[in-house]
Each structure stands twice: as structure tokens, then as C-alpha cells.
Amino acid sequence: MEQAIIELTRAVNRLADAVQSVKEGKEEYSPQTPYKEKGKKPTTTTTTRARARFVKPSVEEVAAYIRAKGYTFDADRFWNYYESKGWKIGNNSMASWRAACVTWQMRESEASSAAAPHDDGPSEADRFLLECMAKRNAARKEAR
């Protein structure tokens, strides 16, 4: 009997705290949302919106999308790559091929910027090394 009174007192205190929070504007009142206790699961089930099923694009769709966005990678290469993988990324089914196009373009941009030569001439370390080699070669010629 004492245990029941203690639990009832705790429940009343939690309810009073919830009412006070609503009055102070910290929380919004919703009759469908039960007051959540720490460590307990909610009594109502929540509905989740189902994700649209992935539809494999055609090569033409990919090519049109790439042209529209101004991307520079090859549509056939993209399509063939994911076709060979079963339109999966790792073990997960692809959610959006358009998002994969963004990733491919970022990698293409990184690869082209890394491959572009930066012709600023030799670096300071290279110039020092060249000077040392020239001095060594000059010293060897004098020694002969």
C-alpha cells in the first residue's frame, strides 16, 4: 500500500511539473503525446513516412542530368559503374542517383585540380638542392 502511494505521489509531481512547463511556454501541450518518463518507452506508436522506392535511371536520364547541371564526368562510366554494383553503395541500396552524381563531380573536380600543374617554378628546397648539386659538380671538375 505504501509503495502505491509513493508511485502515485511521483506521478502527480511529474504531472504538476509538465503542467508548469506548459504554462511557462517551455513545452507545447498535445493530448496525443503522453508525458515521457525517463527510461520508459512511449505508449503510443509513431508513424514514419515511407521512403520512395529507388528507380534505376537510364543512361540518357543520367546524361541529361549531367548536362543540365554542367558536370564534367562521363555519364556512361557512372551508369556502368553502378549497374555493375547493382545500384548499391556498400551493402545499402542507393537512395538517390542524383546525390551520387554530386559526389562523382566533387571527386572529378578534386582529381582535375590535383592533376593540374602548378608551374610556379622550382620551390625553395628545389633551388637549394640544385645549387648544392652545381657546387658539387664544380668541385669535382676542379679536382680532376
What does this structure look like?
- This protein is mainly α and 144 residues long.
- Among the domains are: 1-36; 59-112, no CATH class.
- It is 58% helix and 3% strand.
- It has five helices and two strands.
- Strands 1-2 form a two-stranded antiparallel ribbon.
- Helix 2 crosses helix 3 (75-84).
- The longest helix has 23 residues, at 2-24.
- The termini are far apart.
- The model has no long low-confidence stretch (mean pLDDT 81).
List the helices and strands and how they pair.
Elements: H1 2-24, H2 59-69, H3 75-84, E1 88-89, E2 92-93, H4 97-115, H5 124-143
Antiparallel strand pairs: 1-2
Helix pairs in contact: 2-3
The coarse overall form would be elongated
Strand order across the largest sheet: 1-2
What can be said about the biggest beta sheet?
2 strands, antiparallel
The arrangement of helices and strands along the chain is: HHHEEHH
Estimated structural class? mainly alpha
Using DSSP, what is the number of strands? 2
Using only CA atoms, what is the Rg? 34 Å
How much helicity do the residues have?
55-70%
The average pLDDT is 81
Continuous helix count: 5
**Uncertain runs with pLDDT below 50, 5 residues or more?**
none
End-to-end separation in angstroms reads 111 Å
Strand content bin = under 5%
